[in-house]
């Protein structure tokens, strides 16, 4: 299994169950699960900005979601994710 990581963010494409778009809960569970099992190697020093926003040293509160409209949109996003990883080594 190959694993790729970016130093400060991640991209993903999800297929959710029909009539279910509960992105906030899913992201909360992912972030919580990761943080609980983190061995602190991912921790960075909290900046004044993060402290003011109530953000931990790993995760931002915000995220961006995009509904894939069609096959072309899907292909473009898969290409972007792949290219982004290559671009950052």
From TrEMBL:
SMART domains: Y1_Tnp. One of its GO terms (molecular function) is transposase activity. Transmembrane segments: none annotated. Gene3D superfamilies: Transposase IS200-like. GO terms for biological process: DNA transposition. It comes from the Bacteria. This is Transposase IS200-family protein. It comes from Thioploca ingrica.
